[in-house]
Each structure stands twice: as C-alpha cells, then as structure tokens.
Amino acid sequence: MKIGISKFGFPSAFLFAQLKRDYSGIKPTTSASNFTFATKYPRQQKPKQKPKSKPTKKESHIPARLRLAEIKRTEHSQKFELVSDKDPEWQKQQPVKKQAFSEFNLDPDLLEGIKNGLGFHHASQVQQACINTIQENPERNILVGSQTGTLKLTVGSGKTLGYLLPIMNELKQQERNAPPSELIEHFNDGKSNTLSFRKLKRPRAVVLLPSRSLVEQVTKVGKLLSHYCRMRVVGITSRTSKVKELLTSPIDVLITTPTCLLSLVKEHDMALSQTKRIVFDEADTLFDESFNKETLKIIELKSKIEEVRKLEIPMMMVTATFPQTLNNQTKQFDLIRLTTPSLHKTPSNLKQSFLRVGQSTTKNNLLLETLKRAVTDTEKILIFCNRLESVQKVYDFLTSKSYPVFKIDSTQENLKESFKKFQEPGVKIMVATDIASRGIDLDIGHVIIYEFPHTLIDYMHRAGRTARFGKAGRVTSFLGRKDLRLAEAIMKSGGSRLPSKI
After folding, report:
1. What distance in Å separates the CA atoms of residue 3 and residue 17, rounded to the nearest whole number?
2. Residue ranges of the domains in the chain?
3. Which residue range or ranges hold the Helicase C-terminal domain (predicted)?
C-alpha cells in the first residue's frame, strides 16, 4: 500500500491516522506546521495520578527532625507522669488538729532535742503520718508522699523529721529495753560503755539521699537531735575525709548516698547486719535511671542479710512526687502508701506566670523585663536552664547588663560553696541547672525558668525552691512552642494540684 507524501515533504493525513492507531501517544493533525516528531520512541501519555493530600497546617511548617524530637520529648515525659493520689492503695491523711510532739509516744531525750535543739512544738501533717504509722507498723515497708518545700518551718522540719524522729525513737527504745547481759563495760576503746548490738561498721539505721548537699543537710538535723539523745549520727559522702577514723566507733544512724554506701561495703567491710531500718529519701530520684542500679544493689544486699538473719529490714521511702517510674519499681514490695493532701500540690502562697516567646520578642528581652519588675534590695532570684551552655550564655548576658549575677557551672563539686556565695549581700541572682532544684534551703523570692523542663517532676522541684518557710514566692516561666503542651496542662490544673497526665 502506498502512503502519500504532501508537497512539503511531510506524511499525508492517511499516515497520521495510521500512526494514531499504532502509537496512541501521538495525535494526528492536518496541519504539518503543528506536528512534532518523536525522535526515537513515540510519546506515551502519563497515567493520571491522584492529587497529593495537602499537608496539615502543623506539618507544613515543622521539619521532620523537630517532629521526631517532639515525639521523643512526649515519650520521655510520659515515663515520668505523676501517679494520681486518688488511687485506692493510698492511705490519705486528712487534715487533723495540730498535735504537739509531747502527745506522741517519743523518748524523753528525743522530745528535749525537738524542743530545745530545734525549737519545735507541733508536728506537721507528714510528721504525724510518719510517726503514727511507724509506731503502729514497726515491721512494715512504708512509702510517704508529701509536698515539696518547707512550709512555715525551718531546715529539715518537714519530711526529714518525719523519718528521723520515729527511727531514732526506735533505736532509743531498743537501748532502753535491752537486758543488762547486752551491756559491755569496755568496748574496744576501753573508755565508754556500749551495747552488744552497737558494733563497728554495723550502722543501726541507714538514710540514703541522692546528693552530697542533701546528706549534709540531713546530717546537720540528725546531729542536733543526737546531742540530746546520746546517739552517734554520721554523714559520709565521697568528699568526706578521714573515713577510717569515722568508722573506729559504732554508728547509730548513717546518712550517705547509694554509691558511697556500696563503696563502704566493698572497701571498708561495712555491713547491714545490725540495721533496723533503711530510708530512701528523694525516692523518685533514687529509683529513676540516675541511681536505679545502685539502689537495687542495696536492696539485693538487704535481702541476702534478711535470709541469714531470718528477720526483715523494713524500708521507708519518702518522696515529694510519685512518678510512674517509682510506681513501677516499687510494685514488687509490700508497702503501706501514705499521702498528705499536699502531694503534687503547689503552695497557695506561690504565684505562677507563663510568658510565651514569640517572633516579636526573645527570651533575653523577657528576662530583662522580668528582672526590672522583680529585683529588689533583698530578693534573691534563681534562674533555671536545662544545659550548662545556656547557663553560661545567660550569665554572660546579665553580666554585660551590669546585673549582680552568679552561676553554678559545675556538678556537685562546689555546690555548698556556691550556695554560701549566693547568700552574700551583693549577689542577688544565681543561674543554674537542675542541680540547684533540690537541697537548697535558701530564702528565694523569685524563680525564673529560662528554659522550660521536660517533665512535671522537674517543674515541681524548680518551683519548690521558692514560697518556702511560709513566705510568698513567684515562678515565671518562658515558653517556646515545644513547651506549650506541658505548660497548658499545668495552667488547666489551676496551678494548685499538678495533673497526673499531660
């Protein structure tokens, strides 16, 4: 069959029809000037694709790496969600009338120490709950949850005395009830009388805390009481000098950290064979990832001794917050769970403010504006950052603006000295990480959270640095976009009782 060619040298319309049948991608045209030749392969029509769904407003401007970071932050915060105190397992201590310490069945020497050494007359709610529960259940494990911070009292007068008093009372009763046969006239040193259950390197009670500064504070309170009830209270940390000399006499109450206790057991032959009770203060920290291994090793050591003695060593756990991590770790123990109405509750004398950092402002501008309104001649201000790099940047910025500022840029090494310097008259502002969120009994009027924390627990401990001793306090938080979820949960709670979930 012949195919016609036009006078211009192009295939005729018949050829176009043939091409259309054989090659569907090419459309025939009668006008040669509108035709475009396929040089190698005939053009194929692309199949119609479904239109892509438009990204949501949130996804359209948030990079994938930031969304991933938000997911990780959420997972981290959920691990530390607070357990509700409405759980039926909690024995909630309802407010009762003020009880004088003289109304409890406490040793006379201990009562004298409370009155003359510490200057206290009435017990707080948590102290009433602890003393009564230990006296009624001397062999049971106890978990106590109560508000962070010290209200209307002084150092160590809240949860600290809540466990020190009943434990020291137990030890005094053990001494008074001991038969004469257990009295040894000359024990090693040839000078002092003692009892057979007071042995070298065998503490009769152990108190564990997560930091050196807390060990020093609790030891200070214990020593005040020990002067009246003639007991030996010893605080040992990794910085304590002359440890061997401290171990040359029997110890009634040993106050230390989990790491240091394991070191004493390994290097100085210390044992818990005479221990009547172990206290885990700041239990939410001792049972989290920071100290969990050391804490469980001590509990394992306790269990081995119990098998030999055929007698249990009761535990007492004290905490200002009760996160899921602590709940999961303590399910294995038979516990009496006590809580006061103040658990997970901020003080009524604490004012909380939340400031959003937007495009028109910066954290530094908000900081300057906040300080202009906050700084007085006597008010101490504590600024919290999440990282040491941020501490340095805030310190440099405030120094350039001629503010009297001080920073804590180390770990626990010089914390005690840092707090002393902060108490000096000329220093009004301190910048620190969460290392300063616990163990400070200073009169701080204003806490500024420059970088918002990732969990409710961290927020609670930061906020707990102010509104202490019955005085009013203020917390001002700067919020970025990633902080809104946690902050909104706190604000919805009215700032009084922190939500158990976010």
Report:
1. 11
2. 1-36, 90-178+197-339, 346-492
3. 370-502
For 16-53, letters b (16+ CB in 10 Å) and e give beebeeeeeebeeeeeeeeeeeeeeeeeeeeeeeeeee
Question: Amino acid identity, residue 452?
Answer: F
Residue 400 main-chain phi, psi, to 5 deg: -65, -20
Among candidate residues 198, 238, 205, the one with its CA nearest the CA of residue 222? 205
Count of other CB atoms within 10 angstroms of residue 182: 14
Instruction: Give the distance from CA 348 to its chain's centroid.
Output: 21
Q: Please say whether the beta carbons of 86 and 201 come within 8 A.
A: no
Q: Do 346-492 and 90-178+197-339 have the same topology in CATH?
A: yes
Angle, in degrees to the nearest 10, between helices 292-309 and 258-267:
50
Q: What is the dihedral of CA 125, 126, 131, 133, to 10 degrees?
A: 100
Count of residues making up the chain = 502
Q: How far apart are CA 229 and CA 227, in angstroms?
A: 6
Question: Could you give the C-alpha distances from 309 to 240, 254, 274, 313, in angstroms and in order?
Answer: 31, 20, 10, 10
Domain 90-178+197-339 has CATH 3.30.360.10: no
CA–CA–CA angle 436, 438, 439 (5° rounding): 100
Distance CA 300, CA 290 (A): 18
- The tokens of 42 are what? 């005939």
Q: Which helix (H) or strand (E) holds 296?
A: helix 292-309
**Which pLDDT does position 149 carry in this prediction?**
53
CA neighbours within 13 Å on the CB side: how many for 486? 27
Give the largest Cα separation in the chain, rounded: 136
Tell me if the pTM is above 0.85: no
Residues sharing a CB contact under 8 Å with residue 274, sequence separation 6 or more, in sequence order:
197, 198, 199, 202, 203, 204
Record the tokens describing residue 12, joined without a space: 């005729």
For residue 344, give the nearest of 496, 471, 484 by alpha carbon.
Answer: 496
> Judging by DSSP bridges, how do beta strands 183-184 and 194-195 pair with one another?
antiparallel
Distance, C-alpha 476 to centroid of its chain: 19
Which is it for strands 277-281 and 315-319: parallel, antiparallel or unpaired? Answer: parallel
Rounded distance between C-alpha atoms, residue 338 and residue 317, angstroms: 10
Contact yes or no for 286/258 (Cβ under 8 A): yes
* CATH superfamily name and code, 346-492: P-loop containing nucleotide triphosphate hydrolases (3.40.50.300)
- What pLDDT score does 494 carry? 55
Cross-strand partners of 350: 473
Residue 90: pLDDT band with limits 50, 70, 90: low
Q: Which residue has the higher pLDDT, 45 or 472?
A: 472
